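Record type: monomer structure entry
Structure origin: computed from sequence
Chain ID: A
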Amino acid sequence: MLSILLTGLLPSLLLVCLGGLVRNRLSENAWTGLDRLNFEILFPALIFATAAARPIPLESLAIVGPLVWMVLALGLGIGWLARPFGPPRFLDFAGCWQTAWRFNTALGFVVVQALPSADLIYYSVTIGLAIPVANVFAVSALSRGEGLSAGTAARKIALNPFLLASLAGVAVGVSQISIPAPLLAPVELLAQAAIPVALISIGATLNWKALGKLDRFSSIIVGTKLIVLPAAVSLCALALGASGPLVPVLVVFAALPTASAAHVLASGFGADRKLAATLIAQSTLLSAATLPIWMTVAEALAQQ
C-alpha cells in the first residue's frame, strides 16, 4: 500500500519542488496571471471532465449523496474551530478553511484502485456528488470574506467557474449523454494542464520555511482533513455494522489530502495564496503517513 501511495504522491511533490526552484524566473504578476488562467479555464475543464467522465447511476444518488455531503459538512464545521487561531482577515481565513473539506480527486483514484474491496464506480459517484457541494461551501465562504452584499455574493457563487463546471459535469454524468470526441478533446487537453500548473504555482508561492511547522491553526485544519473526517466515517461504519464496497470508498474519500484547486480558488478571490499553498503542501506530505493507516482500516471495515 505504501509503495502505491508514494507512487501516486511523488509526481505531485516533485512538481511542487519544481515550482520552488523556478519561482524567481517569473514575476509575481506572472504567477498571479497563471493562477487566474487556472481559475477561469484550466481547473473548470478538469472539474467538468472528471464529473462527466463516468455515468452516475440515479439509484446511487439517494444513497451516496447524503453520506458524502455529511462528510463535507463535518469538515466545514470542525475546520471552523481554527478561526480564533487563523489570520485576522476573514477572506484569508476562508482561503485556508476550504482545505479542511476539499479533496485530491486524482490521488483518490490511485488509492481506491489499490483496495481490493473498493468499487471504482462508487468513487466516481462520490466525487461527482461531492464536487458541486465542496465548491458551494468554498465559494460561499470566500464571497463572504470579500464583504459582498447578499445579492452580489449569490450572483458570484452562481457564476463561479468551479461551480458551473461541476454542475455541468454532474448533469452530463446523470443524463449519461455521450459528448462527441471532437468537442470533448479540447476540454480534456485543458484538464491535463490544470494540476501540473497548479502544483508548480503552489511550489512557487508557498512559504517553504513554514512547511514543516504545524502551529495550532494549521494543525486543526490539516488534522480535520487527515484524521477527524476518516475517523468519524470509520466509527460510524463500525457502530452501524456497515460493510461492502461503499464503506472503503467513503473512508478513503474522507482521508484524502486537500486539493490543489483550493490554492487556485483562494488566489482567484484575492485571499492569501501563501497560507493556502502551505496548508495544501502540509496536507499532501502528511497524507503519506496517514493514508496507509486509513487504507488498512477501510479494508478491515469492508470485510467486517
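Annotation 1: The chain has one domain: 2-302.
Annotation 2: The chain has 13 helices and no strands.
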